[in-house]
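Side project, low priority. Logging it here so it doesn't get lost.
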Amino acid sequence: MLPLKSIAFLLSFVGMSAGSLFVPILGVANYMMIYQVYPQHAWWHNSLQPLGIRYSMIAAVCLLLGILVNLPRMPKVWPALSLWDLCALGMVLVVLAGEFTGMGPSPENTGLTDKFVKMMIFVFCLTRVTTTKDNFIIVMWVLVLGSLYIGYDAWTAPRGAFSRGRLEVVGGPDFRHSSGLAAHMSAMLPLIAVVALTTPSWFLRIVPFLSGALAVNTVVLCRTRSAFFGILSGTIAALLFAPKRRRIRTYAAMLVAAAAAFALTDNLFWERMNTLRDRHLLQNDRAARGRIIIWRIAGRAIAEHPSGVGIGNFPLYVKHVDNEFGRHAAHNTFVLCAAELGVQGTVLFVVLVLASIYQTRYCNRRAHLTSDPAWVRYMSYGLLLSIITSLGTQMFTERLYTEGFWWTLALPGCLQRVVLREAAAQTVPLQEGGWADLRAFSEDNELVAGGLAPGPLA
């Protein structure tokens, strides 16, 4: 007899996979939940192991089939190809070209290339399906529920899951170690917060509240300085970019959240964070000294291979340069990008990040043209803070090849398309008086994307 959790998961997975053939957003939700839950690492999956089910692949195939079957009925995507999309496609080409440049193919190179291409295929599906407000809300709730599951898993983790006082082996491969787990959960915090602020039902708000509390607890248990720096960066941005019309409400929510988060911390957490203020301790810290050495080696790699050593090949380069040096990870997303994908990959990546940030500001400025301006402003605000928090964290850890990070970068483009669609369906006041029907305007002007001329980075 299968455990009840195993049965519930299997029924949910089969139902969502089948449903995605008719409703593609269910396929998006299914794939994202599989990524966050990662059943292969759960105890209740042991009884399902003999079935040999490849959950992510099945979810992705069903999603692609659902998109193809429902293509005539799916909402149009405006713009069809944005600057963000073009940069993402360019990144894929750079990764594929790395097979023939730099240090050449290797087992690590081949595996990561396969992962990156599959990851970007899903990202493009995400940005084509999540173009309506309802679908966007579903995606945000999937992230909330996924964080709730990971947070509960971390909260109930046994002593064996800790190494040197830091939480490990929780979640899927992309956040199996403390730094990756803390980076993912800290980036989810702003998204969880805006879902709580925009959910009309006070009863439903209990879910994001619990998810946020468990996410903070997970970050505390990881005790990583990189996540602390990322959250600090996000907090400063939160104070600077809070929605003007709801600034007091936002600040009050931040104050309550900060007090609750502080209550979850412990002495071990603050002892590790205090090393950031003590230059002597920081200079003698093994992890900090290791990062300095690895960044110097990365500089040498960039000088010797301007086009990059190839995706996944940086650890091999470090081993080639200094076989005695034990640590091979770059511990910085931008350093890793420059070393493995070269100058061209770094330029594309920086433009892509800037495009995501621009899209959040674009949505904020156009919010008044939609049916729910407050919702759009909070969503753009949360996405901006999530990106800044994630980038702050990634100054001391690497997340270039992790799916969760790319979802964070892709969601502003989804929100922008929601805004364009909402704006095209509304009548808006004109400065000289009267009203303009943007839907009629867009129908009469085929060159106008979604009834509004997108900005230069749209």
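Brief comment: Strands lie at 162-163, 166-167, 427-429, 435-437.
Revisit when time allows.
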